[in-house]
Amino acid sequence: MPLSPEQQAEIDDLRARPQPTLRSTAPGMEGHLYTAYPVLDHGFVRVVDYMGDDAAICQAARVSYGKGTKSVSNDEGLIRYLMRHWHSTPFEMCEIKLHVKLPVFVARQWIRHRTANVNEYSARYSILDREFYIPAPEHVAAQSTVNNQGRGELLEGAEAARVLEILKADSARAYDNYEAMISQDGQQGLARELARMNLPANIYTQWYWKVDLHNLFHFLRLRADAHAQYEIRVYAEEICKLVADWVPFAYRAFEDYRMGGATLSATALDCIRRMVKGEEVTQETSGMSKGEWREFMQVVG
Ligand SMILES: Cc1cc2nc3c(=O)[nH]c(=O)nc-3n(C[C@H](O)[C@H](O)[C@H](O)COP(=O)(O)OP(=O)(O)OC[C@H]3O[C@@H](n4cnc5c(N)ncnc54)[C@H](O)[C@@H]3O)c2cc1C
């Protein structure tokens, strides 16, 4: 079960007591507040709180530009201008606080994003739940032969079944031993802070994660990208849907300039200029390495 009965009771209580506010709210986000959206087999993402909306981004930008913003009077145009010119601080005026339940190995990738505030479930204080991420068969794949940092073809038949069996058996055995070690049944029981060290990285943890919109976009740019590991990408994709409803103008600009856009080197730009003039540019005449050329062709091809 993604949410514990206590967590659900807390949410029900909050929902039963809506409060009037003078703060600006984003209608698209109000509909998402508190709802836990399932991710992977036991995980979820839910919005606990948020601050700001598209108008807050424009309001902050207009403080810095003053009358100069009259030339870009429409909010979406102004937000696109800010995104295009990397004027990022107005986006920091919006914040989001998420409650995320995720496997520990995903949390290790996620925590590398240092520009957020995190409060994690304490396995020193509390007993972890018996919940482990076991990939669905369509995600059990072999090591990629072209990308050292990724997976390739799916494992099939007996090999896939064997792998899944190992994952399930090891998780169950590790948790049985965890319970046995902390058990106080006629004995002292090992401290929880020590017993946890024997648990595998596919066990679930939970945290509150608060971040501003500028840094959230940076996270989404990297983790919703096709090159990100599937298990973190699905969380990023779920968050993308929330952000699209929260700040629709900013999200559209992000999709256009960041997710859908590309950064080109001066050499690559020169190649494009030569191609536009009708020159046939090849890898050999481009000034790029084979790897750079392959990636360049993926962008322009
Ligand atoms: C596909 C992929 C593969 C990866 N592979 C590896 C890997 O093999 N090994 C590995 O260790 N990591 C790996 N990472 C993690 C990666 O190196 C970054 O740590 C992670 O993406 C967080 O990025 P960030 O530092 O820009 O984000 P944040 O920590 O959110 O920082 C945002 C920005 O703030 C600034 N900033 C924050 N803190 C500091 C600081 N202390 N000093 C200076 N500037 C700061 C930087 O400009 C930074 O870009 C991988 C990431 C991805 C997406």
From TrEMBL:
The keyword Hydrolase does not apply. Its cofactor is FAD. One of its GO terms (biological process) is methylation. InterPro entries: Thymidylate_synthase_ThyX, Thymidylate_synthase_ThyX_sf. The active site is at R223. DUMP binds at Q109, W110, I111, R112, E120, Y121, S122, A123, R124, R196, R223. FAD binds at T89, R112, H113, R114, E120, D212, L213, H214, H218. PROSITE patterns: THYX (PS51331). Pfam families: Thy1. It catalyses: dUMP + (6R)-5,10-methylene-5,6,7,8-tetrahydrofolate + NADPH + H(+) = dTMP + (6S)-5,6,7,8-tetrahydrofolate + NADP(+). One of its GO terms (molecular function) is thymidylate synthase (FAD) activity. Gene3D superfamilies: 3.30.1360.170. Keywords: FAD, Flavoprotein, Methyltransferase, NADP, Nucleotide biosynthesis, Transferase. Residues 1-25 are annotated as: Disordered. Binds 4 FAD per tetramer. Each FAD binding site is formed by three monomers. Homotetramer. HAMAP family: ThyX. This is Flavin-dependent thymidylate synthase. The lineage of its organism: Bacteria, Pseudomonadati, Pseudomonadota, Alphaproteobacteria, Rhodobacterales.
